[in-house]
Amino acid sequence: MSQRRIWPSTISIRRILSLRNGNRMALHSEKAGVDEDGRVTTRAVLARIRIPLIATIGLLLLGGTPCLTGYSRADELSSLIDARLGELGVKPSTIELTSQKALRVHRAIAVGDFATANQITTDVLAHSQVQNWRYYPFEDFVGAVFLATTPEFASRLDEWVAKQETDALPLLFRAQYYYDVGWAERGHNFAAKTEPERMAAFVGDMEKALIAVNAALRLDAHNPFSYYLKLRILQGNGRSQAFGAAFEEAIAKYPAYYPPYEIALSTPARAPQAHGCQPEPSNKWPQPPIHRRKIVSRTSPINCMYKVVRREPMRREAKRARKSELPQERAVSRPSKIPMRDYEGICVPTDLPFFTSRPRTAMTF
User: Which CB contacts under 8 angstroms, 24+ apart, belong to 239-248?
Assistant: First the structure.
């Protein structure tokens, strides 16, 4: 289908020209729909009555005359809405969604009702299971709890941790809170372009989150989300030794849980090697001194480039020459593929009459 081309209207063009020329009076006249003689134009009148007319027609089509009736109180309007919904016969929902449970937990923590928060969270955790790429529905549940937080929410989490010191769930929630707050303060810009104050706050929040998730793992090591959250916290510092140890621990505990693998593959090394260079030979594979091979430098890829620029064209030329050889030169090792020779000039015995004529290689009719 061809796209419809929308051309700018005359009023838009005149508005742009008036702004360019600095004529604000002309712009005011165009907005008011007044021409040069001070009369209201027909286009302005149509523009003013177009929207109310469309709205009136829409209300008439949707609800008839009752939609246009003014209500003095909100109770009358709500009763009318309930009556209309009752006519549709919609059954009320009997299943509580994960997002609704997360909202209840968030409100319970905000008001200090930690018993309700612990009960709902424990129930969600009991019904969660590893599904390759996620730990459902616990991952979605925790993410929905921390969609919107306030600074007072941290103090409520501290109260919950102090009240239930032997429970891993409050510590896990505290780690998630500091992780979200740390990245919100830092932003997602490059580290070199981030203000030092923001980076300092980010580092402090990540340290608090790491302490909390380690404490949660000591109390309960049977939650895959705890290992996943720990890797996400350590990911901010690159692929360090602690990140590698946490990754090995996670895949040893839950090898079929794929998010740790995804984090490990997407985390860059802290000191990457130069691209295209081979590593230095180890002591197990010493190079003979007669070969005089040069060790490739990690800082200067010139030696690697020399091999590509000089030797690769030579190899390609040799391969191209080998492919362009005549069939006779390549088929010597395979006698069945040797071409037929010219037997007409060869003296043959008279008792072999089939050698007296040249073998035919094509069919004749």
Answer: 239/264, 239/267, 239/268, 239/269, 239/270, 240/270, 243/267
- What are the b/e assignments for 127-158, b being 16+ CB within 10 Å? ebebeeebbebbbbbbebbbeebeeebeebbe
Q: DSSP string spanning 75-94?
A: HHHHHHHHHHHHHHTPPPP-
Hey, how many other C-beta atoms are within 10 angstroms of the C-beta on 278? 12
Q: H-type helices in 127-167, by residue range?
A: 138-145, 151-163
**Model-level pTM greater than 0.70?**
no
Structure tokens at 340: 């037929």
Within its chain, how far is the Cα of 163 from the centroid?
A: 38
For 174, phi and psi rounded to 5 degrees? -65, -40
Could you report the per-residue pLDDT of 182-236, keeping only the tens digit for each?
Answer: 999 998 888 888 999 999 999 999 999 999 999 999 999 999 999 999 999 999 8
Burial of 113 (0-12, 13-18, 19+ CB in 10 A): middle
C-alpha to C-alpha distance for 33 and 262, rounded to whole angstroms: 60
Q: Which residue in this structure is represented by tokens 């030579």?
A: 314
Where does residue 117 fall: left (phi above 0), alpha (psi -120 to 50 degrees), or beta otherwise? alpha
Query: Two tokens at 189?
Result: 């810009």
User: Which two tokens mark 264?
Assistant: 């490990």
Determine the residue type at 269: A
Residue 284 near residue 260, CB atoms below 8 Å: no
What is each CA distance from 185 to 12, 110, 143, 196, in whole angstroms?
A: 42, 22, 18, 11
**Of the candidates 206, 250, 205, 252, the residue with the CA atom closest to the CA atom of residue 228:** 250
- Domains defined for the chain, CATH in brackets: 10-87 (no CATH), 98-266 (1.25.40.10)
Q: Which residues, at least 6 apart from 105, have a Cβ–Cβ distance to it below 8 Å?
A: 116, 117, 120, 121, 141, 145
